User: Fold this.
Amino acid sequence: MTLEILLQIFFLGIGLSADAFSVALTDGLTYKDINVKKSFFIAFVFGFMQALMPLIGFWLVEVVEIIAGEVAGAEAGIVTAKVVTWLAFALLLFIGGKMLIESILEMRKPKEEKKDRLFSIKEVIFYGFATAIDALAAGVALHAGLSDQTTVWLHTSMILVLTFSISLVGLFLGKQIVKLLRGKYEISGIVGGIILILLAVWVVVSHYTGI
Assistant:
């Protein structure tokens, strides 16, 4: 394992964590009861998911190669990348659209009828999955030469730490933006919904353009 490979893994981790950063920023914007403990939980879930999906992708290709040969493994990697790209698009579009519509409707309600968006473990786990599902394709890249059966564990651990750290930054920035908006969480929800919709589009664009 060379320094060059470690740098490639580092930049791969930065690229993968961009999705988690966007969603963490949205959580910081919209969860009214966020605190340090909840922030660390969110960051860990996002980091764990972003590390788990490439690991699954790596071993999926490995198993297919063992059973059916290298050509089949390569084909499985291509199909996996396409499927998870559109699945990630659908999930993020749904989440972002739902948040956007709910926030707009909330703005129209009388003050006494408005509901705060509060921290939810189930929601965080779902967000972590939706954000990381396209990282399955990264496992194909790892299998293509960056990792082997031993080093893949170290490489995915690096991705976990990077995503965890960057997610914490996103959560912090989200809370600071809320302060600038003077606690107007409905507006924050609209901003968050737009971010997620743009992220959904970006997942598809980046897959087909290689950006």
Q: What stands out?
A: Helices lie at 3-30, 36-68, 70-107, 121-132, 136-146, 151-180, 185-209.
